């Protein structure tokens, strides 16, 4: 049996190790002449060295030898390389959650007194964090429409550092003018950060449209099975990646090996799943738009949606998440969500099962009434993450809940 620890655990062969010592130092088989089909889970907190100089050098380099789990790990690095490759980036940093990825980037690139520009319609967790940045660090935020480069230019100040966008906004599915907004940001010397969770790299690759950083909640579509929490930030340039990496290892929002392995496994079926998510969403959105109990449907694949034309140019599919407004307001929304049988009332999105929730009281509960109105979220707004079940079964469930 080949063994990378065939030096008898670095012990003196004339002095055999006692059982309690051998139990600690488990032999590690070397893989020679073949390789595993899937990435193994390197479930270790750190790595051992023979050369102290190599260890010391690796502590300060993202491309050095593996040192400590908070820096990275072979399984985590495999995920980082995979998602970076999908997005067309130079490098990536995997984190313990989607908010971990967002906060790592924002906190690494901003300092007290800075100013950032964000689109008006945002995920509730991101909006809440921007409020924290203002309250704790005096970092001011200006909101502009997601498709208005002129408004972005008009909002710039000497202390502006960053522009924050979502490819498809949560939950109103507004599509950002990534080419226009990212070009304006670059002209003004600003870093552009794009949350691509709803679209994934299958539907859109923001770096190709000028984005500097792309973030994902890997909890969602990338893993796709509602069994892991994670995040990732992908960087267009190596220099910006290294700048954030040095901060990230001190922040400690690192991904762990098993979660990274689960996400990497989910990536293998991402393209297939996204095709089904999008086709199911089309059927449901189209039928809901014709239902008398529904006042409006917010899905960019409908001609009535304000982002319809832009979405057709920018996206290769319109996504599997959308929202709709019930004519009966909040009471109708609560009745609907308590009446679904196949769809599940639950947070999160992007899994193989269909989920529904009420944004005003869940994902966007931290927003004020004014902020909810600005985002287009009403008391009767329901968000649905369409799964990969048979579409007619899903429609039968929604129809009986609406009846």
Automatic annotation (TrEMBL):
Cofactor(s) needed for function: pyridoxal 5'-phosphate
Region named Disordered: 1-22
Keywords: Pyridoxal phosphate
Top-level division of the source organism's lineage: Bacteria
Pfam family of the protein (one): Cys_Met_Meta_PP
PANTHER family assigned to the protein according to its UniProt record, in alphabetical order: CYSTATHIONINE GAMMA-LYASE-RELATED (PTHR11808:SF85), TRANS-SULFURATION ENZYME FAMILY MEMBER (PTHR11808)
UniProt similarity note: Belongs to the trans-sulfuration enzymes family.
Name of the featured protein: Cystathionine gamma-synthase
């Amino acid at each position: 049996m080949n063994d990378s620890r065939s030096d008898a655990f670095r012990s003196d062969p004339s002095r055999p190790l006692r059982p309690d010592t051998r139990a600690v130092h488990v032999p590690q088989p070397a893989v020679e002449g073949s390789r595993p089909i899937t990435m193994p889970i390197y479930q270790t907190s750190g790595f051992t060295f023979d050369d102290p100089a190599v260890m010391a050098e690796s502590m300060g380099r993202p491309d050095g030898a593996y040192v400590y789990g908070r820096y990275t790990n072979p399984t985590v690095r495999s995920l980082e390389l995979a998602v970076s490759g999908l997005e067309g980036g130079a490098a990536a940093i995997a984190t313990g959650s989607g908010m971990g990825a967002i906060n790592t980037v924002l906190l690494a690139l901003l300092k007290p007194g800075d100013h950032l520009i964000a689109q008006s319609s945002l995920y509730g967790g991101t909006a809440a964090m921007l409020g924290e940045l203002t309250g704790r660090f005096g970092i001011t935020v200006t909101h502009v429409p997601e498709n208005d480069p002129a408004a972005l230019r008009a909002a710039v100040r000497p202390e502006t550092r960053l522009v924050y966008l979502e490819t498809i906004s949560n939950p109103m599915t507004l599509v950002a003018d990534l080419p226009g907004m990212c070009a304006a940001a670059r002209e003004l010397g600003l870093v552009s950060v794009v949350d691509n969770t709803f679209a994934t790299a299958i539907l859109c690759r923001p770096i190709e449209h000028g984005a500097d950083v792309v973030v994902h909640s890997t909890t969602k579509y990338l893993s796709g099975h509602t069994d892991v929490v994670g995040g990732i930030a992908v960087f267009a340039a190596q220099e910006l990646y290294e700048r954030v990496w040095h901060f990230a290892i001190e922040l400690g929002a690192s991904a762990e090996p098993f979660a990274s392995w689960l996400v990497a496994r989910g990536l293998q079926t991402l393209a297939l799943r996204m095709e089904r998510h999008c086709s199911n969403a089309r059927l449901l959105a189209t039928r809901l738009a014709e239902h008398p109990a529904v006042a409006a449907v917010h899905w960019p694949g409908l001609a009535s949606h304000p982002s319809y034309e832009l979405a057709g140019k920018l996206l290769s599919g319109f996504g599997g998440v959308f929202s709709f407004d019930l004519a009966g307001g909040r009471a109708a929304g609560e009745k609907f969500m308590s009446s679904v049988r196949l769809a599940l009332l639950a947070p999160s999105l992007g899994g193989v099962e269909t989920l529904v929730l009420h944004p005003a009281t869940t994902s966007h509960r931290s927003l004020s009434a004014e902020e909810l109105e600005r985002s287009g979220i009403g008391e009767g707004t329901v968000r649905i993450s369409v799964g990969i079940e048979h579409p007619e079964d899903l429609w039968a469930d929604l129809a009986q809940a609406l009846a």
